[in-house]
Amino acid sequence: MPKVQLFIPCFVDQLYPDTGMNMVKVLEKLGCEVSYNTKQTCCGQPAFNAGYRQEAKSVATKFLQDFKENNYIVSPSGSCTGYVRNYYDKLFDNSSDHNLCNQVCGNTFEFTEFLTKVLKVDNVGATLNGKATYHDACGALRECGIKEGPRKLLANVKGLELQEMGECETCCGFGGTFAVKFEPISLGMAQVKVKSALDTGAKYMITTDVSCMMHIQGYINENNFPIQTMHIADVLASGW
Predict the structure, then answer these.
(1) 14: burial class by Cβ within 10 Å (0-12, 13-18, 19+)?
(2) 3-class DSSP state of 206
(3) Does domain 127-236 match CATH 3.40.50.11810?
């Protein structure tokens, strides 16, 4: 039975807790022993991206201690997973935490990546009726190299018709503080993304990152478009 530690990002914890619970639901159905360290906080990505390296390292040091057990670490976020795996080594290079950093980075997986690459599963028995399109979140695609895994999982959801959109790999415009600092550009990018999704006739736009969902759904709601964002964990936990 694989032992899994949950790594729950800030947006999931504060805004989409059901997505975290649905990830647990899927992992436990697949036979994983799931644990959650309630002491965990942020991974430090916002501070790092804003240029506050020392503050980011302070938060990351706590993260290493919170996840020091040598078990799988699974997160419903390609963005946070990619940050830990690709940038922690820069923070802890030639430090006393270097070995622990390597262990934690090697154990950390995005949710769909863990299902398809570690558990070797592409069908979890989910059911969701309707047409859907998939948005490649930047963190999952560009930081973690995740492309085909989510599509394989969605292709095996009973009742779901998956239709590719023309701008599937284009950024939605969120980008953390980018959406705040460059709001007009960010909204323009969301417009392109939503139009591409609407052109497929999809009812659902599915992705791996709730940060993308929050940004895109806000634009959808503002314009009353007939489409809904969903995290892939919520899709895979449907219909049981």
Answers:
(1) exposed
(2) strand
(3) yes
Specify the pLDDT at position 200: 98
Spatial CB neighbours of 90, under 8 Å, sequence gap ≥ 6: none
Q: Indicate the angle between helix axes 53-66 and 78-92, nearest 10 degrees.
A: 110
Rounded Cα distance, 163 and 30, in Å: 27
Listed in order, strand segments (DSSP E) in 57-143 are 72-75, 108-110, 127-134
Enumerate residues 6+ apart whose C-beta is below 8 A from 46: 176, 177
Q: What are the extents of the domains in the chain? A: 3-118, 127-236
Rounded-to-integer distance, Cα 236 and Cα 128, Å: 9
> In the structure encoding, which two tokens stand for residue 177, read together?
């503080």
Q: Are 236 and 123 in contact (CB under 8 A)?
A: no
| Mean per-residue pLDDT, 136-147 | 96
Q: Taking the model in full, what pTM does it have?
A: 0.95
For residue 152, give both structure tokens: 């394989």
The band of 240, judged by pLDDT with boundaries at 50, 70 and 90, is confident
One-letter-per-residue 3-state SS of 13-50: HHCCHHHHHHHHHHHHHCCCEEECCCCCCCCCHHHHHC
* CA atoms of 56 and 131, how far apart (whole Å): 41
| Amino acid symbol at 161 | E
- Pairing status of strand 127-134 against strand 158-162: parallel
Distances (CA, A) of 171 to 49, 107, 112, 127, 128: 17, 27, 19, 28, 26
Which pLDDT score is estimated for 201?
A: 98
**What are 149's two structure tokens?**
């895994």
Task: Please check whether residue 155 is in contact with residue 236, taking contact to mean a CB–CB distance below 8 angstroms.
Answer: no
